Amino acid sequence: MKKSSKQIKRYRSSNDFLIYHQISIAVICLLGVIIYCNTLGTPFAFDDYGDIKRNSFIRLTDLDLQKICAAAFKSQAPTRFVANISFALNYYWGRYDVTGYHLINIIIHLINGILVYFLALLIFQQNSNITSGNSQPLDSTIPLMSLTAALIFTAHPLQTESVTYLVQRMHSMAAMFFLLSILLYIKGRLVRIKWQRWSLFFGCFIAWGLALGSKELAAILPFIIFLCEWYFFQDLKTVWLKQNLGYFLGIGVVVGLVAFIYLGGNPFDRIMEGYKIRDFTMGERVLTQFRVLIFYITLLIYPHPSRLNLNHDFMISHSLLNPITTLLSLLIIVGIIGYAVFQARKQRLVSFCILWFFANLVIESSFIALEMIYEHRLYLPLFGFALLGSFLLFHLFSNKRSRIIVAAVIILILGTATYQRNKAWHNRITLWSDVVSKSPNDARAHNNLGIALAEQGEIREARFHFSEAMRLKPDHEDARNNLKYFLEQGGYFDKSISHYYEALKINPDDADAHYNLGLALAHKGNPDKAIKHLSEALRIRPDFAEAHSNLGGILSKRGNLQEGIQHLSEALRLNPDNIGARKNYEFALRLMEKAKTSKDTNHSPAEE
Predict the structure, then answer these.
(1) Of 171, 335, 487, 536, most Cβ neighbours within 10 A?
(2) Does residue 414 register a pLDDT over 60?
(3) How would residue 8 be classed by pLDDT, with cut points 50, 70 and 90?
(4) How far apart (Å, rounded) are the C-alpha atoms in residues 571 and 296?
C-alpha cells in the first residue's frame, strides 16, 4: 500500500526534526566541552576537602554494598547520599585524581544542557498551543529557540561554580534529576495511553527522590510541577484549583514529611541552632536576601568575570532602611512578582519564567541559616532566565538571520567569559588571590590564600595573610592555628605554643589546636604533653588521620610499639595515601621485629 502525500510529508518533517535534535545535542556538548576543557586539572578547593578529600567514607576500594552504604549515609551530609555515592565511585575509579571528578561534573552539566533543550521544546510548544487556541504542529522556530535557551544555560559564566567547584556536583546533580522529573511529568501529561502515562509519572517521582538525595533544594519541585500544570495544561483556571484541593493537601503532606526528615521534629530549634555559628541573625539574613536577589539578577544580565567571586563579601542589612537599598530591593522584587502574577494570562511564559526563578531560590535565600550568598545557587534558577532570554530574543527580532546572529554573539560572549572565569580556578593560589582581590575584607579568603601560599613554600606571604585574617576577625580560630603552625616552621616554637594555649582557653574542644600544640611540644622535646594533646585531638575528632599518625610515631619512638602501631594502622585506614604514616608504620614494625629478635636471642638455650 502506498503512503499518502500527507503521510510522506509528516514522515519527512519528523525525520528532519530528529536530525535537528541530534545536531542540537552535539552543539550543546561541543560548546560545554570547549568552555570547560581548561578545568580538568583544577585541584580540590574549599569544601572539597571536607566532603571529598578528608571524607574517609568515600574511599571505596571495592564495590561492596556495605561500604557503598557507609559512603552514602556516614559522610558529612548523609541526606545527600546520591552525590556521596558518586564521589565514592570517583574514588574507586581514580582515587584522588581530580580529572575523573571534573569529567563527571562536566558530563552532568552537558546532560543538564540537553534536558534544558528538551524541556524548553515542550514548554514553548505548550505555550504556542495556548496562544493559538489549539494544538499546533511543531513550528521550526521552536527547536531553534529551545537550542538557544540550552546554549545560554550551558555557556553562562555563573554556572562555573556548580561545574568547576567539585563539591557543587551536589547542586548540579540535584538540578539534573529535578529537570528530568519535570520533563517526565510533562511527557506523561501529553501521552494518552494510561500505562505509559503512569510509568512516566512514576519515573517523575523517582527522579524527585534522586534530586532530594543529591541536595535539599529539590524540595520545591512539587510547586514547580503545580506551576507547569496550572500554566500550560489548566489555562490558569481557578475552578481547577478548587476541584483539586485534596490533591494539593496531599502534596502538602508529602512536602511536610520531607521537611520533617531533613529538619526533625523541632524544625524551628534546628534552624535557630544553625545561627549560633553565623555572624548574623535570622532577621538580618532575611533582610539581606532582598539585596542578594537583586544582585543575583544583575549577575544574570551582566556576568563579567570581574563580578564573579567564590566568596562574596556582602554587606549585611540591619533594617529596611540600613542600608536604604534593602527597602528598594524589596519594592523591586514585589513589583517583579506582582507583574508575573497579574500579567500571567497575557504574558504566560514571561510570568512562568519569573516565578520559576524566585521559587527555586526560596529555600536557599530565605530564613534558613545558610551562608549569605553563593553563585552556585543560581544554577537551577538560570533555566528560567535562559528560557525567558531566548523567548524575548526571538520576539524582538522577526528576521531569522538576525535571530541567529544575535543568539550566536550572545552565546559566544557568555562562553568566552566562562572560559576566562575558569582560569581563576587554575590552582588554589589563583583562586584565593582572585577572592582576596574582590573581597579584601574577607578573613576566610585571607586564611585560605595563606594556606595555598604556604603549601607552595611562600611562608612569609602566608604569614601575612594569616595575620590579616586575624586582624579582620580576631576570633578566627583557623587563621590563629595556621599562623602558629608556620611560626613553628620558622623555629618560633615558644611563641607558637603560647598562642596555642591561648586558643584552647577560648575553645577547649578545638581539635586542630590540640593537634598543632602536640606537634610543637614534640618538637620542643616534651613528648608526654605532646601525647596528651594529640590524644585529646583524637577524643574530639576520632577520624583525625594526621593525629593518629603523629601520635603513633611518638608512641613507637617511646617504646610503646603495640599502641603506636594501632594508631598508625588507623591513620592508614583513614588515609591510605598518608606517606608519613606509612613510613612511621614501617619504622614501628622494624622496631617490633628487632625487639622480638632480641627477646628470642636472650631466651635461647646456651650452646654446649
Answers:
(1) 171
(2) yes
(3) very low
(4) 44
Residue 322 backbone phi and psi in degrees, to 5: -130, 90
Max CA pair span of the chain: 113
Compute the half-sphere exposure of residue 352: CA atoms within 13 Å on the CB side of its CA. 28
The beta-strand segments (E) located in 414-483 are none
Q: Which residues pair with 319 in a beta bridge?
A: 322
Per-residue pLDDT band at 603 (split at 50, 70, 90): very low
Q: Which residues, other chains included, contact 268 with Cβ-Cβ below 8 Å and sequence gap of 6+?
A: none
Please give the angle made by the CA atoms of 155, 110 and 70, to the nearest 5 degrees. Answer: 125
The Cα 322–Cα 137 span in angstroms is: 54
Measured CA to CA, the distance from residue 449 to residue 482 in angstroms comes to: 11
Residue 604: its pLDDT value, please? 42
C-alpha–C-alpha distance, residues 5 and 607, integer Å: 110
Q: Which tens digit of pLDDT belongs to each residue from 439-464? A: 999 988 998 998 888 878 787 788 88
When the pLDDT of each residue in the chain is averaged and rounded to a whole number, the result is: 86
Say whether 505 sits in a helix, a strand or coil: helix
Gap between the Cα atoms of 423 and 337, Å rounded? 36
H/E element holding 22?
helix 5-36
Grid coordinates given for 587: 619504622
**Per-residue pLDDT at 602 exceeds 90:** no
What grid cell was written down for 66?
556495605
Share of the chain above pLDDT 90, in %: 51
Query: Assign residue 133 a region: left if phi > 0, alpha if psi is -120 to 50, beta otherwise?
Result: left
Q: Which amino acid is at 510?
A: D
Reply yes or no on whether the pLDDT at 19 is more than 60.
Answer: yes
- The residue behind cell 563579567 is 304
Q: Going by C-beta distance under 8 Å and a sequence separation of 6 or more, which residues neighbour residue 61? A: 67, 92
3-state SS assignment for residue 322: strand
Query: pLDDT tens-digit profile of 465-513?
Result: 888 887 788 777 777 677 666 655 554 455 567 667 777 777 788 887 7
Cell 511564559 locates to: 349
Q: Helix %, strand %, coil % for the chain, to 5?
A: 75, 0, 25
Query: Cβ–Cβ contacts within 10 Å for residue 533, how many?
Result: 24
Q: Which three cell numbers stand for residue 281?
A: 541573625
Residue range 212-231, pLDDT digits in tens: 999 988 989 999 999 999 99
Q: How many other β-carbons are positioned within 10 Å of the β-carbon of residue 486?
A: 20
Interacting residues of 424 by C-beta distance below 8 A, sequence separation 6+: 305, 430, 431, 434
CA atoms of 143 and 365, how far apart (whole Å): 33
pLDDT greater than 90 at residue 433: yes
- Bond preceding residue 323 cis, omega within 30 of 0: yes
Using the structure block, give the residue that is written with the C-alpha cell 489549539. 134
According to DSSP, residue 50 is labeled I
d(CA 402, CA 408): 10
CA distance 545 to 543: 6
How far apart are alpha carbons 468 and 462 in whole angstroms?
10
Cell 534536558, residue located: 115
The residue with cell 587554575 is: 426
Q: In sequence order, which residues have a C-beta less than 8 Å from that of residue 128 and are 6 or more positions away?
A: 136, 139, 142
